[in-house]
Design goal:
It is built from 15 helices and two strands. The protein has 300 residues and is mainly α. It has a single domain, classed as Farnesyl Diphosphate Synthase (Orthogonal Bundle), CATH 1.10.600.10. Strands 1-2 form a two-stranded antiparallel ribbon. The protein starts with a helix and ends with a helix. The structure holds geranylgeranyl diphosphate. Geranylgeranyl diphosphate binds next to helix 4, helix 8 and helix 9.
Amino acid sequence: MNLFHHQLKQDAITVETRLAEVLSLTNISGEICRPKKLMMSLRHAALNGGKRLRPFLVMQTGRLFGANQSNLLQIATALECIHCYSLVHDDLPAMDDDDLRRGKPTVHKAFDEATAILAGDGLLTLAFDILSDNSTHNNPQTRITLISKLAKAAGIGGMVGGQMLDLYPESKSPDFSEIARMQAMKTGALIKFACEAGGICGEASITELNALSIYGQAIGQAFQLADDILDVTATESQLGKGTGKDDKQGKQTQLSSLGLKVTGEMAKDLVSQACESVSIFGERSDLLVQAAHFIVSREN
Ligand code: GRG
């Protein structure tokens, strides 16, 4: 196992532990009660699964600046809550209608649709509760910046807007740049936030934050291209979810415009751009460079 895979695994364990704490069955101060079925569905959605790539990106970009580890963990946990909520809602019959996620029944299959909607809502709101907590950063202005940036990345002009454009494109036959913009919103915005958040937490300079933004944008796009490729090349057991869905639904993707070969080449170019951007950090960026390569070579 190389250093990147080791760190990815370590960070996944740490974030999983924190997720289990924030999703405890007993209510915390300020709450009235935590309904058992809701908590079981939230834990089904958020525990025991996933690569935890976004949490790793928060932790690793923060490490570049010696940011406080428990602050980074709070941000990573909040972000993973948002990511898990998006998967639960995306799997619903009204959206992608999937039975399998991370190799397990989707939340609406394991529970029911109303519970899955509420589980997503619960994870979404919990994320902002976590970010606003004093333990996330001792500077209130930094907490507000993180809240505002995550709201924009996850919300109307980010992931939610991207999902809307994916379900209901504004033109009959979206061209390459419209698809790329939709995917930058739907998938890219959260990945970019993950890379910027570590820098914000570690009080990086404008130049350093800019380098992280470019890195985040490039790997976000490469991630989506790799996802398109896996959708046509991987097996269901490899991915832990259904495959070939884009084609079955007649959905336009960057891959359907470019073809498999050019999509692969474009993904590699984006990885080079990402690595170039973080080269200002010298050897400290080694794990981010390895992460960028992993994003396009991953098998699930
Ligand atoms: C419902 C508001 C709303 C948004 C849904 C994230 C999303 C938007 C849809 C998921 C559909 C999908 C498969 C998108 C491709 C990119 C993506 C987010 C893949 C899943 O992320 P991974 O591979 O998953 O990081 P794990 O399970 O490893 O966490």
